[in-house]
Amino acid sequence: MSAGRLAPGSEAWLLTLCLARVGTFMVYISYAAALPVLQREWQMSGTAAGSIASSFQLAYALSLLVSSELADRLGARRVFFACTAASAVGAVLFAAFARDYWSGVLLYTALALALGGTYTTGILLVAEHVPVARRGRAMGILIGAHSLALALALVLTGIAIPRGGYPLAFLLTSLGPVAGGVLAWAVVRDTPDRVAARAGGERFVGAVLRNRPAMLVIAGYTWHSWEVLGMWAWTPAFLAASLAAAGAGLSRAAGLGSYLASSFHLTGMVASLVGGVIADRLGRTPVILAMASLSTLCSAVFGWLLGAPGWVVVGVGLVYGFSTLGDSPIYSAAITEVVAPAYRGAALALRSLAGYGAGAVAPLVFGWVLDVQGGAEGWGWAFGTLAAAGALAVVATAILHRLPEARALTVGTAKS
Questions:
Q1: Distance, CA of 165 to CA of 185 (rounded, Å)
Q2: Coil/strand/helix, residue 4
Q3: Nearest alpha carbon to residue 338 among 251, 239, 252, 221
Q4: Considering only CA atoms, which of 265, 272, 270 is closest in space to residue 232?
Q5: How far apart are alpha carbons 172 and 164 in whole angstroms?
Q6: What does 357-414 look like in DSSP terms, one character per residue?
Q7: d(CA 135, CA 332)
Q8: Residue ranges of the domains in the chain?
Q9: CB-side exposure of 345: number of CA atoms within 13 Å?
């Protein structure tokens, strides 16, 4: 390997892949971060605001489905880079031209179609080049990079909104995917495409749909996604509402809300790494059960804290951010370990379609509950919809943990 080149699977290769993810995914939360201001300036109800987030998630889910299937057939490497480059273009267009509800929903949806193609392909690159014994840790770093991206975007938004409004915030976050594209090229230029041959047209049914551990992993991830994506979409607005209730002006409350939400994502980044490392040692399902149970409790409590002392809101929020992200990389590692290599992309596609499909519905349901209930209590009931999803994730994982054929997921890699 010549100087400046990255050996696939090496620590430098993994770090560069994760930094590319940090840059690219900064735009993932640019809309949610500016939502308190956008609702006023774009004159949106809670339902209308939720519909943009839902449209983004539906397009993202469709992109995951198509890109994962393409990765199985063409190789994850080339699909990953093509979608990363397209995300950079989409981010710049969104920043330049999203100025009302209709331009916002169209451009943000188009951005999601490109952005989704970088997610499962990144997971596949890790699965293809990092050994099982280190895969939980590697997935933790990769998912943690997403959290760091969201935290950076929230900080930039908090700085930008009081100075240049949402247009400046969109511009700053759009620079991330441009840098991510450069880093992605450094990753893929010496990374080979690995395409495993498929034997027979009916094997997908047996490899995934009739694979009980795989389907339970997908079920748990689906409800996990409902909870975490709903939480991501509405937490900045909830924090802004809390600050506004304490007497802060809207722009200042929105900026401070973004700062506070960024700290929750930073704890999520730490949780992703910690959860992945612990899962390598203790097993996938025990760690998922612990994290999912804690996040469900936080969802049930968090929305009722409007008007509570700031230190209580922040304290619960930090635990909330930690627990909702702590099991994300474990789901990603688990699905790659219970299906045949030739069908990893297809299994990830199904998992992601179900998960992000649920994540598309979650913000809309949340916003509808806010509109129907109204007032401070509306937040409590809206976050309660996320708690119900978290409880279903716990149930699915508890069943998975008891399956004899899922033994490899219930113990650490050193014991399996």
A1: 33
A2: coil
A3: 221
A4: 265
A5: 11
A6: HHHHHHHHHHHHHHHHH-HHHHHHHHHHHHHHHHHHHHHHHHHHHH-GGGHHHHS-TT
A7: 10
A8: 11-191+202-410
A9: 30
How many CB atoms are closer than 10 A to CB 1?
9
- Contact (CB, 8 A) for 35 and 156: no
Task: Give pLDDT tens digits for 92-141.
Answer: 999 999 999 999 999 999 999 999 999 889 988 988 888 777 877 888 88
Residue 14's closest CA among 134, 115, 128, 141?
A: 141
What distance in Å separates the CA atoms of residue 78 and residue 71, rounded to the nearest whole number?
8
> Given a cut of 70, is residue 203 above it in pLDDT?
no
- Each residue of 364-379: pLDDT tens digit? 899 899 989 877 789 9
Which string of DSSP letters, residue by residue, matches 59-80? Answer: HHHHHHHHHHHHHHHH-HHHHH
Percent of the chain at pLDDT exceeding 70: 92
Burial of 197 (C-beta count, 10 Å sphere; 0-12/13-18/19+): exposed
Q: Are 46 and 373 in contact (CB under 8 A)?
A: no
pTM for this prediction: 0.74
Q: Report CA 243 to chain centroid distance, whole Å.
A: 26
d(CA 409, CA 158): 41
User: For 213-235, what is each residue's pLDDT tens digit?
Assistant: 889 999 999 999 999 989 988 88
Q: How far apart are CA 107 and CA 94, in angstroms?
A: 5
CATH architecture of 11-191+202-410: Up-down Bundle (1.20)
**Residue type, position 1, single letter:** M
Of the candidates 90, 78, 112, 111, the residue with the CA atom closest to the CA atom of residue 185: 78
